[in-house]
């Protein structure tokens, strides 16, 4: 299939790629050419893309750091862990309440919610010179005395690694002294090439220190964990509503609306569902090895994908009650969604979208656009790996480089007491035969049209080139890109924080999204907008020279 939509036939992607690369020094061009791909799908197989490699110094990237991936993304949304940033105050401050992950403290007895606080050791020059372990010990003690939390986690920022503070021995010592769960992460910002390294480190830590520490088996006929759902704008609440309506118990969500106790007995569930493959596939893999819980990839972004994911769960259990209930729920929820889409589609049909976000949403949200007839013409991840683009089939081909070798791979074996295969080998094979693919993710590119552009770790310059050539009807990215793009007269939807909107997951979320996109792509304001330099290309100014000041 080739792309068609308003005006996009006039852009030649091959020529555009050439034009982009020409402006770079030859060495930079040679690197970027591997990360800018014109999509082709041949029997599910797509071209190779360069991903998860270092950003070239001097290029303005969208990426964040390892600390952001560990503390901000994976552990941050857990309301009853006191998360202490060990470092200078800026790292703690700028990762404080910026991600719009919602939580419901009333669902845990003690009502603890520490997410509204910003805990930091506030390292000063003295600590950099003489070491910061003493200050860290004091911070843990102080947090314990004031809040009496169930757990405390410590996150290392760049200087901690540079001066060699041993956060792990401090946390071990304090765990023994205070008798609560205390653990640390060596997630210094400079590790790896992006926040993706921090996800892996967070996965290792939570797997080692929390999962499997409570064997209580809770009630529930169909018990699942939802992995890689962070409850941005309330997405997790909508997914919980739908799953609960189907009679499925969400034992633990990693880590939207989560509490530490839920992580502790996640190993008692029947099935792991993965929403965001990039940030949490490691936990799923390790839980399967250690406890025997299989995992499947799901996607609750888009009404059709939600229905498809629910049917996948039904197939896994294979019980008539559940299969019937899920069909009932889909039949109940769909008409409202269809009605909204049908009403909106005449206004959005054929309009174009670009998505440059993170490590999973640039893929998932294409589905929502298609549901209202819009066309994703270019997309890319900030920090996805090749498997997120091309599918997990390429995993064996991915070379381990110096940056990925920096991140520990845990050796995981069967837990002698707790390992219990949820399905026999024959049952698993039977399900696979029926099309339930376990441990699989097909990636973004096979879902995209031929001739669309896929750009990994897009730079600001490349973004501007794409916009000038294609003039998409909407661009999806984050706060760092928002105003640059809006000044070019293109509306920008933040797909990290959702601006002030959401939820967009599940059935009700889809309706919210259609409506918002309709308003954004059909508002005239963007076409009427003129930057000051477009109206008056020559700006004049006066300056005064005051020698004695
Ligand atoms: Fe996963 Fe995420 Fe994403 Fe991500 Fe993120 Fe995020 Fe994201 Mo921002 S975990 S990879 S590190 S879905 S914070 S909730 S929106 S970049 S696409």
In a nutshell, what does this entry contain?
The chain has 549 residues and is an alpha/beta fold. It is 43% helix and 12% strand.
Task: Describe it.
- The chain has 549 residues and is an alpha/beta fold.
- Among the domains are: 66-189, Nitrogenase molybdenum iron protein domain (Rossmann fold); 222-344 and 392-424, Nitrogenase molybdenum iron protein domain (Rossmann fold, 3-Layer(aba) Sandwich), CATH 3.40.50.
- It is built from 23 helices and 14 strands.
- Helix 10 links the parallel strand 6 and strand 7 (248-255).
- Helix 3 packs across helix 9 and helix 14 packs parallel to helix 21.
- The chain is globular, with a radius of gyration of 24 Å.
- The termini are far apart.
- The structure holds FE-MO-S cluster.
- FE-MO-S cluster (CFM) binds next to helix 3 and helix 12.
What is the beta-strand fraction?
Answer: 5-15%
CATH superfamily annotation of the domain at 222-344 and 392-424 = Nitrogenase molybdenum iron protein domain
Strand order of the largest sheet: 1-12-11-10-13-14
CATH architecture of the domain at 222-344 and 392-424: 3-Layer(aba) Sandwich
Associated small molecules: FE-MO-S cluster
Query: Which structural class do you get from the secondary structure elements?
Result: alpha/beta
Tally of helical runs:
23
As a whole number of angstroms, the C-alpha radius of gyration is: 24 Å
- CATH topology descriptor of the domain at 222-344 and 392-424: Rossmann fold
Distance between the termini: 67 Å
Helicity range: 40-55%
Oligomeric state, counting identical vs distinct chains:
single chain
Low-confidence stretches: none
- Broad shape: globular
């Amino acid at each position: 299939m080739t792309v068609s939509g308003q005006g996009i036939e006039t852009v030649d992607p091959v020529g555009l790629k050439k034009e982009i690369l020409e402006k770079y020094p030859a060495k930079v061009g040679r690197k970027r050419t591997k990360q800018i791909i014109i999509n082709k799908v041949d029997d599910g197989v797509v071209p190779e893309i360069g991903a998860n490699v270092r950003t070239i110094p001097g290029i303005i990237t969208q990426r964040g750091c390892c600390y952001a991936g560990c503390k901000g993304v994976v552990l941050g949304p857990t309301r009853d862990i006191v998360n202490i940033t060990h470092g200078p105050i800026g790292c703690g401050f700028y990762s404080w309440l910026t991600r719009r992950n919602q939580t419901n403290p009333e669902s845990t007895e003690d009502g603890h919610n520490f997410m509204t606080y910003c805990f930091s050791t506030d390292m000063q020059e003295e600590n950099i010179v003489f070491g910061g372990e003493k200050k860290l010990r004091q911070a843990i003690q102080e947090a314990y005395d004031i809040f009496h939390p169930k757990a405390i986690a410590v996150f290392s920022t760049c200087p901690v690694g540079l001066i060699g503070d041993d956060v792990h021995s401090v946390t071990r010592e304090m765990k023994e002294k205070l008798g609560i769960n205390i653990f640390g992460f060596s997630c210094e910002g400079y590790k790896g090439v992006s926040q993706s390294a921090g996800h892996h480190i967070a996965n290792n830590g939570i797997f080692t220190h929390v999962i499997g520490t409570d064997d209580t088996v809770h009630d529930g006929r169909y018990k699942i964990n939802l992995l890689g759902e962070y409850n941005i704008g309330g997405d997790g609440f909508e997914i919980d509503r739908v799953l609960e309506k189907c009679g499925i118990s969400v034992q633990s969500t990693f880590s939207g609306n989560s509490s530490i106790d839920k992580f502790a007995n996640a190993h008692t569930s029947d099935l792991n569902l993965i929403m965001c493959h990039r940030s949490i596939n490691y936990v799923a893999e390790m839980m399967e090895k250690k406890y025997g819980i299989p995992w499947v990839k799901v996607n609750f972004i888009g009404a059709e994908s939600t229905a498809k994911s629910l049917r996948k769960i039904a197939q896994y259990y294979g019980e008539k009650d559940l299969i019937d209930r899920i069909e009932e729920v889909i039949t109940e929820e769909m008409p409202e969604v269809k009605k909204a889409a049908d009403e909106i589609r005449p206004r959005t049909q054929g309009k174009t979208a670009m998505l440059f976000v993170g490590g999973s949403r640039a893929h998932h949200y294409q589905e929502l656009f298609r549901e209202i007839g819009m066309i994703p013409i270019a997309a890319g991840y900030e920090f996805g790996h090749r498997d997120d683009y091309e599918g997990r089939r390429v995993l064996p081909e991915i070379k381990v480089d110096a940056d990925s070798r920096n991140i520990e791979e845990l050796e995981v074996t069967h837990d002698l007491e707790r390992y219990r295969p949820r399905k026999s080998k024959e049952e698993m094979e039977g399900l696979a035969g029926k099309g339930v693919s376990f441990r699989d993710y097909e990636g973004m590119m096979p879902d995209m049209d031929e001739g669309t552009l896929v750009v990994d770790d897009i730079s600001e310059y490349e973004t501007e080139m794409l916009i000038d050539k294609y003039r998409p009807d909407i661009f999806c990215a984050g706060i760092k890109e928002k105003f640059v793009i809006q000044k070019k007269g293109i509306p920008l939807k933040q797909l990290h924080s959702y601006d002030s909107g959401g939820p967009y997951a599940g059935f009700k979320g889809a309706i919210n999204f259609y409506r918002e996109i309709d308003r954004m792509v059909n508002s005239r304001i963007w076409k009427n907008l003129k930057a000051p330099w477009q109206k008056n290309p020559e700006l004049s100014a006066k300056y005064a020279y005051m020698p004695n000041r």
